[in-house]
Amino acid sequence: MLETLKPELEATLQANQVPFASFGITDANATRMQAEIGTAGAAPLDENHIFRIASMTKPIVTLAALQLVARGDLRLDQPMKEILPELGEVQVVSRNGDELTFAPLARDITLHHLLTHTSGYAYDFHAELIAELVAQEKLAGVASDNDAFLSAPLIFQPGENWEYGINIDWAGRIVEKISGVDLNAYVKANILRPLGMKHTSFSINDLNGDALVPLALRDDDGNLSDVSELMPNVTDGPYLGGGGLYSNVGDYMKFMRMVLKDGQGPDGQILPADMVRDMFTNQIGDKQVGYMPSRNPMLAKGHGWFEGTSMKWGYGFMLNETEVDGRRAAGAGAWSGLYNTFFSVDRVRETGCVVMMQMLPVYNEAALAVFDTFERAVYSANS
Questions:
Q1: Catalytic residue of the set 121, 123, 164, 315
Q2: Known catalytic membership, residue 312
Q3: Are the CB atoms for 84 and 74 separated by under 8 Å?
């Protein structure tokens, strides 16, 4: 498969002025293809390079929270103020004419709300009201180098809608509180080590920092500038469950193989099989994962999904309710990361695809073209 796909992938990177990317395809049992193409800084990209995977952290931290549910330490319907009292004090912001007003919670935030992005928490680079508070310097943006953004209000009452936001950062705090250890220690002991993910951590100190690839900013003309210094490396926390992991394609395929095998790791069960199936089950009812507008063009382009396909959320990732254009079967899971890392996991066709690039803004046309070309080629080769 590598010999068939690699020339097409090389041509796609060149045509879209993407300097490097790592690609992987796995089934439930083994890697079917891995390819590193291009140059990262001064060195040819190889399988040992490390990427900032941003929101591709979310499925792993969601898994951590579900492990605690499986052990009886948490309940999905449990009010999270019982664990973190500040989650009972958060307010809901709304617009009243030219002013922003704040109201108390009408109902408790539960773990289910957090894991499904139905709590009302949002991101400042997508949600207008949160972006306005950041612009007024009344709130820290998510790109700040600490966790001050967690003080954000909700933009609707818990359970009323779906909005992508800082929910899994809060879920990470809950994992820390219940387990009694920091998020990096918990995830390493309960997920990364059992899966053999040796190139993944919340702390760059655990990895070869020299192998971290540079981060680029792409302008509208396709020109790239190195902005690595804008995103300081995390060494000793705070560890952010919504986007703090470093990893690479080889490691992430180990995580995907586990979910393809109903939670089975190399040496035992990582999560009960029924809970893995819950991850791939619509958890938001008739709500939709809709268009995500941009409030900060440097970080994110506005982005929708496959036309005519209803998109839902399970636990950890987005689900397509119907087949996607001859590619993913209905019920496949997929998501991405701020620096243009992408994955999809199709349990029906037993296929996992992952691509890692490293540039802003997320969902820029070049990055989307690379992932689209790759995923189409994978499914075409399988047909």
A1: 164
A2: no
A3: no
Residue ranges of domains in the chain, CATH in brackets? 2-382 (3.40.710.10)
pTM of the model: 0.97
Those residues with Cβ within 8 angstroms of residue 173's Cβ, 6 or more apart along the chain or in another chain? 84, 150, 183, 241
Q: Which of 31, 26, 25 is nearest to 6 (CA)?
A: 25
* One-letter amino acid of 15: A
pLDDT digits (tens, 9 = 90+) for 184-218: 999 999 999 999 999 999 999 999 999 999 999 99
Asked if 301 is an active-site residue, the reply is no
Beta-carbon contacts of 246 under 8 Å, excluding residues fewer than 6 positions away, are 50, 51, 52, 53, 199, 200, 201, 202, 204, 207, 212
Active site residue 58: yes
Nearest-Å Rg of the Cα atoms of the chain is: 20
How many CB atoms are located within 10 Å of the residue 210 CB? 9
E strands, the chain, where? 20-26, 31-40, 43-44, 51-52, 92-96, 99-103, 216-218, 224-226, 246-247, 264-265, 268-269, 311-313, 318-320, 333-337, 341-346, 351-356, 359-360
Which residue in the list 55, 201, 203, 344 is annotated as catalytic?
55
Q: pLDDT by residue (tens digit) across 112-162?
A: 999 999 999 999 999 999 999 999 999 999 887 678 999 999 999 999 999
